[in-house]
Design goal:
The chain has 593 residues and is of the alpha+beta class. Helices cover 46% and strands 10% of the residues. It is built from 26 helices and 14 strands. It has a seven-stranded mixed β-sheet with strand order 1-12-3-7-2-4-6. The protein has a three-stranded antiparallel β-sheet with strand order 10-9-11. It has a two-stranded parallel ribbon with strand order 5-8. The longest helix is centred in the C-terminal third of the chain and has 20 residues.
């Protein structure tokens, strides 16, 4: 019979001993250690002041099947922010009975690091490189000279604990006591000898502080814990979710934990972050939530982000198809990077889920971004993606319903029996559009919509993809392009307009930001063109660049979607804007329809 039994409390020293002996381990469902160094320091101050540390929840593991089928990890002892934050795996096959920590991992890890290990954190204002200069190794010390400088009623601090480097400690060794030394003074006799031999008894504060430290570590039974006895992983997982239903674990953390718990042959704690890092290396910031959402979209009948969708049965296809899932996700991000998108301009990453679905279940991810045979479909998908993003079809408030409608077009109504309708030969953007209209998400490209795109301002996130649409011939994969004003922005300042030849009613037209700061007066320039352009007048720059590139002025204007002379002159700005409106409107219609 399963039961949760309150056990006789143990001391912190006893808990540290169990951690070192691998009698306390961390199950795969737990997240990483996330406490900052200051939070660890404050925990020790709270302990010495007599504040309760809270209760813990352990899961007794003695079943050979559980030890074989599920992964367990050791506690972190030498923590290095950003680099060494993964718990070492511990093979429990054949290991004696042990307890797995379901609640209290962060606190126990903090105690273990403070009493036995090191904490290396980023020093700031240097390159984030995995070395001692950027992340110096530190150990926990206690100030035995007196109270911290910020000790007052507002902070509540009485004892100053601080992670110090060896150099920092050596600068004032009489002030600091290495906290890990207290573990060697287990009995009162040994502790008293240390106090006398190092003359701490001459300082009342030092004697009191060290006595308190010795007491909370060795004498007081502060680790109060419940133990779940004779239970399997499913039972432990249910308890874990229940006790972590609020902060500090978020729903995202819990779903990650439940997914991880059901992976049998792979280590999801490493596989999923590895995919996240691969996407970030391509310039797109995602987190584990996106990866889990992609897995749901590919294989779960219900794509909502909820605990019930992460049962053992639901997550098994994630692991079974993991290599192909990774390949499809990475291929999708490679493709949109080739289209010219970056993390800023890809305004809805969830819009990529149907593309990932298509690549994955069509089994075409491996060479889709480069194969000559798929060029036509890549162009088709590019138009579809541009429209979806520019019209914000997959909005945050209705994402699941819209994504579900798109998936029904791809899979049909018998999802799971077949993941892709066999008659689909190419990405069904027309059918998707029809389905979305029924969802009230009209993807149609109207004249009014195109006009709204043309008035998009330079700093708007959508400016880049609009300009990329207008210049599909540019090599966005290998080039570095900037959105820049054609007629320089400085020319439209009020004082500059007053000095120019612009007169009468034209002044208001020139000064209107909807004209000079919108797509109508913007273009994508490569790094060299952008450097040469600067504040140079458009007509002068166009002539010089055409000569520099050894092409005709007419061809230069065509390449940069410009009307020809004399409409490039600043005095003909009104004519220039109307000419560009006509040219750009036509190009956008061709690109989106």
């Amino acid at each position: 019979m399963n039961s949760e039994v309150f056990q006789i409390p143990i001391t912190i020293a006893n808990a540290i001993s169990q951690i070192g002996a691998r009698d306390l381990l961390i199950p795969a469902i737990q997240r990483k250690f996330v406490w900052t160094h200051s939070k660890v320091e404050w925990l020790f101050d709270s302990l010495l002041q007599g504040y309760p540390i809270g209760s813990f929840l352990f899961w007794e593991v003695d079943d050979p099947v559980t030890k074989t089928d599920y992964k367990f990890y050791e506690f972190l002892q030498s923590y290095r922010q950003d680099f060494k934050d993964e718990n070492p795996h511990f093979a429990t096959i054949g290991h004696r009975k042990f307890n797995a920590v379901l609640d209290g991992q962060q606190r126990l890890t903090a105690l273990y690091i403070g009493l036995t290990g090191t904490y290396a954190y980023y020093r700031g204002r240097v390159n984030r490189v995995d070395n001692e200069y950027a992340y110096p190794t530190r150990r926990l010390y206690l100030n035995v000279v007196g109270k911290p400088e910020d000790s007052d009623e507002q902070t509540g601090r009485v004892y100053e604990f601080k992670f110090l480097t060896d150099v920092e400690f050596q600068s004032s060794p009489a002030k600091w006591f290495l906290v890990s030394r207290i573990l060697k003074s287990r009995d009162l006799s040994t502790f008293t000898k240390m106090i006398i031999s190092e003359s701490y008894q001459l300082n009342e504060f030092a004697t009191e502080a060290l006595s308190q430290l010795h007491s909370v570590v060795h004498l007081e039974q502060l680790i109060n814990y419940y133990q779940i006895e004779k239970s399997d992983m499913e039972r432990a997982l249910n308890v874990f979710v229940r006790v972590n239903s609020a902060e500090p674990l978020t729903l995202s953390d819990m779903l990650m934990s439940t997914a991880v718990a059901h992976w049998r042959t792979r280590d999801a704690r490493r596989e999923i972050p590895s995919l996240v890092n691969a996407i970030r290396e391509r310039g797109f910031f995602v987190d584990k939530d996106f990866v889990l959402k992609a897995c749901l979209y590919l294989y779960s009948p219900d794509i909502r982000y909820r605990v019930s969708n992460f049962t053992a049965e639901r997550v098994r296809p994630f692991e079974d198809n993991w290599d192909a899932i990774q390949e499809s996700v990475i291929a999708a991000f490679d493709l949109v990077r080739d289209y010219g998108y970056n993390d800023l301009t890809l305004t809805s990453k969830n819009t990529l889920l149907p593309l990932i679905y298509w690549l994955h279940h069509k089994h075409i991810a491996s060479d889709f971004t480069s194969a000559v045979a798929t060029r036509g479909e890549r162009d088709l998908i590019k138009k579809w993606l541009h429209t979806m993003l520019l019209k914000s079809v997959v909005g945050s408030g209705s994402a699941d319903s819209v994504l579900g409608a798109i998936r029904r077009v791809l899979a049909g109504e018998a999802f799971g029996v077949s993941y892709l309708r066999p008659e689909l030969q190419s990405f069904p953007q027309v059918e998707i559009a029809s389905s979305l209209r029924l969802q009230g998400r009209d993807p149609d490209v109207t004249a009014e919509f195109i006009e709204s795109l043309l008035l998009t301002q330079k700093d708007n996130r959508q400016a880049f993809p609009i300009l990329a649409l207008l210049s599909p011939h540019l090599d966005y994969k290998n080039g570095n392009f900037h959105a820049d004003h054609l007629h320089p922005a400085s020319a439209f300042r009020q004082k500059d307009l007053a000095r120019s030849e612009v007169l009468g009613e034209d002044v208001e037209f020139y000064a209107d930001y909807r004209h000079w700061n919108s797509i109508l007066n913007l273009s994508h320039l490569d790094a060299n063109e952008n450097m040469s352009k600067q504040a140079t007048s458009l007509s002068v720059w166009a002539a010089a660049e055409a000569e520099h590139q050894k092409i005709s002025h007419a061809k230069f204007c065509v390449d940069h979607i410009l009307p020809e002379e004399p409409d490039l002159a600043f005095g003909r700005f009104r004519v220039f804007i109307e000419a560009r409106r006509r040219i750009l409107s036509q190009k956008l219609r061709e690109a989106l329809q």
